[in-house]
Amino acid sequence: MAGFGFSIGDILTAGNFARDVYKSCKRAGDDSKAITRDVEMLQAVLRELYEEVSNPSSLIHRTNADRQAQFKTVVK
C-alpha cells in the first residue's frame, strides 16, 4: 500500500475499468466520441499514476505526511 488509502491493485482495477468503458464507448458510434476521449485520457492518467506508485524512488514515496494527505485529497 502506498499510504494513500489505495493500492497498486486498485489502480490496475480502475485502469482496466477505464479501458473496458473506452472500448464500449468506441463501439457505440459518433455520439460517444467526447466520452470516449475523456475515458481514454482517464486511462492514460491512471497508467501514469500506476507507474509513479510502482517506482520506489518516485516523489510520491518521498513526500511528508502533509503532502501525502494533500495528494490523497486530490486523488479522491
Summarize this, please?
The chain has 76 residues and is mainly α. Helices cover 76% and strands 0% of the residues. The longest helix is centred in the middle third of the chain and has 22 residues, at 33-54.
Strand content: under 5%
Count of individual domains? 1
Major beta sheet summary: none
| Shape category | elongated
Rg, rounded, reads 15 Å
Mean pLDDT: 77
Structural class designation: mainly alpha
**Range of helix content:** over 70%
Poorly predicted regions: none
Through-space gap between termini: 16 Å
Number of helices: 4
SSE topology string: HHHH
Report the count of strand segments.
Answer: 0
List the helices and strands and how they pair.
Layout: H1 8-28, H2 33-54, H3 59-62, H4 65-75
Helix pairs in contact: 1-2
Describe this structure in words.
- The chain is mainly α and 76 residues long.
- It has one domain.
- 76% of the residues lie in helices and 0% in strands.
- It has helices at 8-28, 33-54, 59-62, 65-75.
- Helix 1 packs antiparallel against helix 2 (33-54).
- It is elongated and about 45 Å long.
- The protein starts with 7 loop residues before the first helix and ends with a helix.
